[in-house]
Amino acid sequence: MQLIVISNPDAIANEARIINQLFEAGLTRFHLRKPAYDAGQIVHLLNQIDEQYHYRIVLHQHHAVAQDFNIERLHYTEQHRQNTDAEQLTLQNYCGYILSTSVHNLAALQQLKWFDNVFFGPVFNSISKPGYETTLPADFALDKKDIAVKVIALGGVEAANLCQIKAMNFDGAAVLGSIWNNPELAVANLKNLQKGCLPD
Known about the structure:
The protein is an alpha/beta fold. Helix content is 28%, strand content 17%. The protein has a single domain (2-196), classed as TIM Barrel (Alpha-Beta Barrel), CATH 3.20.20.70.
């Protein structure tokens, strides 16, 4: 099961150093999500992240920056995806970009042929967004029939519920609050999460 870390949307002290440390600890996929950042701020942060790890980064905003940083993965928010025509998505696939997106409706999972993986949530009550609560039943299990994309659980993910996420039939889990609520413990918390993502 794949483990994904999403950046804190706000600036964090020593953020690039912590990101590099997370990669050094074995993180394979990092979603750079900074909704309020302009392109220059994104570039500044990327310049501080070790170049050898750029291919593990997924860019949420300012997609045009990707070509300058060996970044081949782009993420679309649900609204951005809905406002992007099929021709543009097809062109990005043709150019070699690997796309991901987010959904909050399970029915949408069958309509995402341009995307490699998709975030679905909240699966549990969010750690980083108070009041952002799940509507899934306790015995929920994802029916993967007719779903071509990999589905990543988002919302309230922590080490204690990774086994439950596996039982729910998700392909991976994305974390934000479990890492960034205590940035000084980010690497230790990642390692704890990684233990829960080991294959059975």
